Amino acid sequence: MKNAMIVNAITPDILLRAYAAGIFPMAESRDDPQIHWVDPRRRGILPLDGFHISRSLRRRLLRADWRVTADSAFAETVQACADRDETWINDTIFANYVALNHAGHAHSIEVWEADTLIGGVYGVTLGSAFFGESMFSRRTDASKLALAHTVHRLRAGGFTLFDTQFLTPHLASLGGIEIPRGDYHRRLARALTESAHFHPPGYSPSPSDVASSGAGAGTTSG
How many Cβ atoms sit within 10 Å of the Cβ of residue 222? Predict the structure, then answer.
């Protein structure tokens, strides 16, 4: 793991101080007790005014058979993100994010099919920065739909930075970009001086509000 420091214990307070310094934790595997602090030379971000909503995602957003909630199943969302053959979420990381959620610094967006959790995103908030940690999908487009709702909520709440840590092809297809570490730290420093709200007062968007909010909504191919 490049650009990483190894520690054996973390606390919610240490986690928040790490995010404020521009670093984030990862374990090598579910069973590895050690925590690696990572500060990539190239950082992935998702510009909040540049999220791409394809025709197929827009159609999915407008369908009524899935529902979206916020912070109603945080622990279950983190568990679902870790439910894969290879994961960086060990028991220590899981417990600390749940503690941050209880303290109001970690949040999730959940996608449901009836009473079944089928997709979601979770991350940490400080100032006007949202540090996206992980997402999962158990149905086609469920994680994309969760991201669309997350971006819409962050924009409504006054957030200015959506940190995705690394840039994957999946995130790039949705508008994610990669920036140098120094640029990221400058953006983070500004975001930490600003305030934002993950639960903006009166926030209750319709599916059409979310579907029409992305860059190029309804114009790109599915």
Answer: 10
d(CA 163, CA 94): 19
List the structure tokens of 163. Answer: 């940190």
Report the distance separating Cα 129 and Cα 211, nearest Å. Answer: 23
Task: Quote the distance between the C-alpha of residue 54 and its chain's center.
Answer: 20
Residue 207 CB contacts under 8 Å (≥ 6 apart), including other chains: 61, 62, 63, 64
CATH classification for the domain delimited by 42-220, as one of 3.40.30.10, 1.20.1250.20, 3.40.630.70, 3.40.50.300:
3.40.630.70
Confidence (pTM): 0.90
If phi > 0 it is left, if psi is from -120 to 50 it is alpha, else beta; for residue 63 that is: beta
- d(CA 61, CA 67) in angstroms, rounded, equals 10
Which DSSP state fits 196?
-
From the list 152, 177, 132, the residue with the least C-alpha distance to 19 is 132
Which amino acid type is present at position 30? Answer: R
Mean pLDDT of successive 10-residue stretches along the chain, which has 222 residues: 54 95 86 85 96 93 93 97 84 93 98 97 98 95 96 98 94 95 98 98 94 62 35
Residue 173 has a CB neighbour count (10 Å cut-off) of 12
Burial environment of residue 50 by CB neighbours within 10 A (0 to 12, 13 to 18, 19 or more): middle
